[in-house]
Design brief:
With 420 residues, this protein is an alpha/beta fold. It contains 14 helices and 17 strands. The strands form 5 sheets. The chain has a 7-stranded mixed beta sheet with strand order 4-10-9-8-7-5-6, sandwiched between helices. Strands 13-14-17-16 form a 4-stranded antiparallel beta sheet, covered by helices on one side. It has a two-stranded antiparallel sheet with strand order 1-2. Strand 1 and strand 2 form a beta hairpin. Helix 2 packs antiparallel against helix 10 and helix 4 runs parallel beside helix 5. The radius of gyration is 22 Å and the shape is globular. The N terminus is likely disordered. Keywords: Pyridoxal phosphate, Transferase. Its EC number is 2.8.1.7. This is cysteine desulfurase.
Length: 420
């Protein structure tokens, strides 16, 4: 599968996604909740099914043919992920259930063993709960102090405030690459440089960036990066942690059990080499292999092509939303080409709760997100109880945006008439 143009990308790939052709409430599904989870192409679905039908066996533990085949496919997927984000070594890729588990792994393995009373952890007010709660728990146990970067007037990461906030006491900076609510793209490479200047480690939550444009961990120079497979066309239950090799080598195991050991005695154990030191127990084998298939699928399209096409959709989406006077949009505005932010729009509607809006749109077959999007601190900062979010992927079309906008206008008209 090779694509030479971005103009008709969605037309080329939609046949690969069976769910996009289903109906909801007797209307063709318009799926605009991609920031929550992506849909899965046939290549991924068939890869998962093929594992269970053709070579289902445990990995690393058997000498028989099925186990060897499963192990080869499982480890080949690790190689694909490493190449996808340009890790320096396959040993720097640790399979996890999701990005939340990956952050917790760093928090408990590194944080609990390196943070002292008075040490500082810098986050931002836009972080997903998964990048706040683990650090709250670690701070409570170690005496470390949490600090938060706020927003610029354009509702982006306030880099100047960050420069004033960081100090020699800062041991960790952990920041989202793309806000799942604001859609802003944070300057992670510059943040990494500043953090390292003060001797601090830097973790990137890349859940919203890895599926949408090229991510190069060596260029960013982050110490850790986390992502979830289910947001990048892979199954649920599989994600990964990237960590610099020497840093992962210095970290003790997070979970104990089978697979992560070298030798076990009654009074002590020795641990396996990376990355297996952090992968206790039977892993999500089929899901990991399918993650590799998802990486193949995205790579065959080309992440640059995906980004360019989604930018076109973003420009069009914002053009349409900005024509609706009742709508208030959050996060930075895209430029005329749709660049400068992610392919999602978070908004509120005057006089209408986001959940009511989402419910009525669903009746028209349009799936969007409503609520706090696992960013309650951000919503409190913005002074809103909830918001609605339409998030795009490369398989969405302008026609779907038109259906969404038409349904949104009709829904707002209904509420206006109902309240008058």
């Amino acid at each position: 599968m090779t694509f030479t143009t971005t103009k008709t990308l969605a037309d080329k790939v939609r046949a690969d996604f069976p769910i996009l052709h289903q109906e909801v409430n007797e209307k063709t599904l318009v799926y605009l909740d991609n920031a929550a989870t992506s849909q899965k192409p046939l290549l991924v679905l068939n890869t998962l099914r093929n594992y269970y039908e053709q070579y289902n066996a445990n990995v690393h533990r058997g000498a028989h043919t099925l186990s060897a085949k499963a192990t080869d496919a499982y480890e080949a997927a690790r190689d694909k992920v490493a190449k996808f984000i340009n890790a320096a070594s396959r040993q720097e890729i640790v399979y996890t259930r999701n990005a939340s588990e990956a952050i917790n792994l760093v928090a408990y393995s590194w944080g609990m063993n390196n943070l002292q009373p008075g040490d500082e952890i810098i986050l931002s007010v836009m972080e997903h709960h998964s990048n706040i709660v683990p650090w709250q728990l670690v701070a409570q146990k170690t005496g470390a102090v949490l600090k938060f970067v706020e927003l610029t007037p354009e509702q982006t990461f306030d880099l100047e405030q960050f420069k004033k906030l960081i100090s020699d006491k800062t041991k960790l900076v952990s920041v989202v690459h793309i806000s799942n609510a604001l859609g802003c793209i944070n300057p992670v490479q510059e943040i990494a440089s500043i953090a390292h200047r003060y001797g601090a480690k830097f973790l990137v939550d890349a859940c919203q960036s890895v599926p949408h444009f090229p991510v190069d961990v060596q260029k960013i120079d982050c110490d850790w990066l986390v992502a979830s497979g289910h947001k990048m066309c892979a199954p649920t239950g599989i994600g990964f942690l990237y960590g610099k090799l020497e840093l992962l080598e210095s970290m003790p195991p997070f979970f104990g059990g089978g697979e992560m050991i070298a030798e076990v005695y009654l009074d002590h154990s020795t641990y396996a080499e990376l990355p297996h030191k952090f992968e206790a127990g039977t892993p999500a084998i089929g899901e990991a292999i399918a993650l590799g298939a998802a990486v193949d699928y995205l790579s065959n399209i080309g992440m640059d092509k995906i980004h360019a096409y989604e930018a076109e959709l973003t420009a069009y989406l914002f053009q349409q939303l900005e024509q609706i006077p009742q709508i208030k949009l959050y996060g930075p505005k895209p430029n005329a080409q749709g660049e400068g932010r992610a392919a999602l729009a978070t908004f509120t509607a005057e006089g209408v709760h986001a959940n009511d809006l989402s419910t009525l749109l669903d009746q028209e077959g349009v799936a969007i997100r409503s609520g706090h999007h696992c960013t309650q601190p951000l919503h409190r900062y913005l002074g809103i109880p909830a918001s609605a979010r339409a998030s795009l992927s490369f398989y969405n079309t302008r026609e779907e945006i038109d259906i969404f906008i038409k349904a949104l206008k009709e829904t707002l008209d209904f509420f206006a008439e109902f309240s008058s």
